[in-house]
Design brief:
globular; alpha+beta; binds zinc ion; 2,3-Dihydroxybiphenyl 1,2-Dioxygenase, domain 1; single chain; 3 helices
Length: 134
């Protein structure tokens, strides 16, 4: 499959406001967008360092996947997102090679991207996201 770069790294946080004290206040990065993704019950904040984005994820409800993640593992790196010019093709190939898909078809994520997740059980415990701007 064709993956072009790390689109972003998703980081689960209890509070975006608190976390920005570190990412902006200490690391000197700039948060350029805050967006709610209602079907995932999360608020996202995006920062950029070079070509790579960091996506801070804060749960908006107790049954949000991010709330469950923090409950089990605590705050920290949540997922790795790869950019691909061919999201349906990448998903098809992952499926054919026996990986477990969380999203069988692309859906809308933050920043208007089409996204799909692979289950960490079949990716060496790394929740993996594919993103495409097409
Ligand atoms: Zn993501």
């Amino acid at each position: 499959m064709e993956l072009t770069h790390i689109e972003h790294i998703g980081i689960a946080v209890k509070s975006i406001e608190e976390s920005l004290k570190y990412y902006e206040g200490v690391l000197g990065l700039k948060c350029y967008a805050i967006e709610e993704v209602t079907d995932q019950k999360v608020k996202t904040a995006f920062l950029k360092v070079g070509q790579t984005k960091l996506e801070l994820l804060e749960a908006l409800a107790e049954d949000s996947p991010v709330a469950k993640f923090i409950e089990k593992k605590g705050e920290g790196i949540h997922h790795l997102a790869f950019a691909t010019p061919d999201l349906p093709g990448a998903l098809k190939e992952a499926d054919e090679k026996g990986l477990r898909l969380i999203d069988a078809a692309p859906r809308k994520g933050a920043e208007g991207l089409n996204i799909a997740f692979l289950h960490p059980k079949s990716t060496g415990s790394v929740l993996t996201e594919f993103c495409s701007d097409k």
